[in-house]
Amino acid sequence: MGFQYSLGGEHYVFDDLKTLMAIASPVRSGDELAGLAATSDRQRIAARHALADVPLDLFVRTD
User: Fold this and answer.
1) How far apart are CA 28 and CA 9, in angstroms?
2) At residue 49, what are phi and psi to the nearest 5 degrees?
3) Could you tell me the CATH number of the domain that includes residue 7?
């Protein structure tokens, strides 16, 4: 399942919830080392907006 958000004429796509949460979070060296950190502040903001639209039950699913 992918997530997406458009911001200022740019379209951002996030492959999965793990990636979305890593990009939306503040910069962390572990995320950078894993290649999951945001490449720009705009991407981080887009990820935060996309994360806000994720239904809560998606976080607690076990399937």
Assistant:
1) 27
2) -65, -45
3) 2.30.170.30
Q: What are phi and psi of 26, to 5 degrees?
A: -60, 160
Q: For 23-44, how does the pLDDT look when each residue is reduced to its tens digit (9 = 90+)?
A: 999 988 988 898 889 999 999 9
Q: How many CB atoms lie within 10 A of CB 5?
A: 20
Kindly report the pTM of this predicted structure.
0.85
Burial 21-39 (b: 16+ CB within 10 A, else e): bbbbbeeeeebeeeebbbe
Strand partners, 6: 11
- Number of folded domains that form the chain: 1
